[in-house]
Amino acid sequence: MAQMKKILVIGATGHVGGQVVSQLADTGVGVRALARTPATASLPAGVEVVPGDLTAPETLIPALDGVHAVYLTWPMLPGAAANSVIEVIAEHTHRIVLLSSGAVRDDVAEQGNPIGRAHALVEQPIRDSGLEWTFLRPYGFATNTLEWVPQIRAGDVVRGAYGAASSTLLHEADIAAVAVLALTTDKHVGARYELSGPTSLSRAEQVATIGAAIGRPLIWEEITPAQAKAQMHWVSPEFADFILDGLAAMVDTPGQPTATIQEVTGAPARGYAQWAADHAADFA
Ligand SMILES: NC(=O)c1ccc[n+]([C@@H]2O[C@H](COP(=O)([O-])OP(=O)(O)OC[C@H]3O[C@@H](n4cnc5c(N)ncnc54)[C@H](OP(=O)(O)O)[C@@H]3O)[C@@H](O)[C@H]2O)c1
To answer: Pocket around ligand 1: residues whose beta carbon is below 6 Å from it?
Structure first.
């Protein structure tokens, strides 16, 4: 009997990787999930969880044993560190699906922003590796709006800058659905998929949408970019400026939807209202 194909998911405990694991498990394919601390990784029953760390590429070797394809999340690590990781992956498997970013441009000699630069540094060694590859290039994730969880749990007002900034936020299940097809079928080799949600909504509208999902009248309250920056403790001041500049740009130029999810999966991309309903418990 032919051995069942096994797929290694790196970033399996993350927003998109978690969906990749459960959707792969639903297809009946063999799934192995990588986690830095398997003991605390919460993954579907029956999924094999193995230890490994991208900062120590040799730890990936046992995880890659018998693996046909890899789903790779590149977390906030220097892009240059990808070279040795990709080298190890290419020695042990045939195919890779990379969660890259819509910030990567093919029409420029140098990437214009830090996110595009970091992901381009991961894409390049994959292109050079001889692996079959697919690059997922998503725009903003709906999970970014989980940043409002503390405010919404505390009351009905969400304070932030650029409430009129409009974007096409993606449901992680849709990104994962594209990943699963690229991992398990041959049609997507060499594709670079720009992924987005189906419609553009302003941040104020996103907050109202969460309110509808949880049955509370949430209100957006505008604060200045400087006030918002002072609260962004989780990023460097430079990165906070980058995020805020991106929001400012989306006030005048709303994110435009792509049709890629529908084209690849045959199903329309899930809207933000669906995402908010799926995550209502996170905000309660
Ligand atoms: N947010 C957006 O709007 C957006 C848009 C486009 C692209 N992206 C890209 O999407 C990616 C993030 O995806 P996500 O939201 O699904 O991930 P996430 O929820 O942030 O989770 C990160 C994952 O990376 C794993 N990880 C972190 N450091 C690791 C290491 N040293 N070795 C092995 N695994 C490690 C974590 O696993 P453990 O901690 O369990 O080991 C976790 O599973 C980033 O590359 C980001 O640039 C994001």
So the answer is: 10-17, 35-36, 41, 53-55, 73-75, 99, 101-102, 138, 140-141, 143-144
